[in-house]
Amino acid sequence: MNKMRVDKWLWAVRIYKSRTQATEACKKGKIKIGEDALKPSFLVENGITLFVRKDKYNLIFKVTKLIPTRVSASLAAECYINLTPEEELNKFKEFDGSVFYIPTNYVIDHRPTKKERRELDEFME
Q1: Which H or E run contains 73?
Q2: What CATH number corresponds to the domain at position 32?
Q3: What is the overall mean pLDDT for the chain?
Q4: Domain for residue 10, yes or no?
Q5: 43-68 burial: b if 16+ Cβ within 10 Å, else e
Q6: Is the pLDDT of residue 22 over 80?
Q7: Considering only CA atoms, which of 40, 86, 36 is closest in space to residue 59?
Q8: Does residue 112 belong to any structural domain of this protein?
Q9: Residues 91 and 99: beta-carbon distance below 8 Å
């Protein structure tokens, strides 16, 4: 096996919990090579560097091994080299919450619905 679908590889090496999540990330343009967004059917091979936008982090992975099925986390770690800078991984450690301001006249009358929460998460990315 010298080529593999990018959504399947992302799932197999445990970057995403499900293949559906990996496919959706590709469709939303969160998986890139350089500036080019990838489709879920893009074929990756050894040596390719992937830029992944996940949970407000910009992750960088270099593919070192292709595996046909999902494996344990220890075996999955051997399939890529994590090139993500330390400052990117630590960017929320010093967050103190002062970025958000809620006016005193703003009344929250209900918890956000699932749809509103997803829209808010998408906005915050």
Answers
A1: helix 73-76
A2: 3.10.290.10
A3: 86
A4: yes
A5: ebeeebebbbebeeeebebebeebbe
A6: yes
A7: 86
A8: no
A9: no
Cα(100)–Cα(5) distance, rounded to whole angstroms? 40
pLDDT in tens, 66-121: 998 999 999 999 999 999 998 887 876 666 555 555 555 666 677 888 988 888 88
Q: In angstroms, rounded to a whole number, what is the distance separating the alpha carbons of residues 62 and 45?
A: 10
Tell me the residue type at 54.
Answer: K
122 within domain boundaries: no
What is the number of domains present in the chain?
1
In DSSP terms, 31 is beta-bridged to 52
One-character DSSP codes across 8-72: HHHHHTTSSSSHHHHHHHHHTT-EEETTEE--TTPEE-TT-EEEEEETTEEEEEEE----SS---
Give the amino acid at 81. Answer: I
Distance between terminal CA atoms of the chain? 35
> Which residue, 61, 59, 51, 63, is CA-closest to 89?
59
Contact 3, 44 (CB under 8 A): yes
The model carries a pTM of 0.72
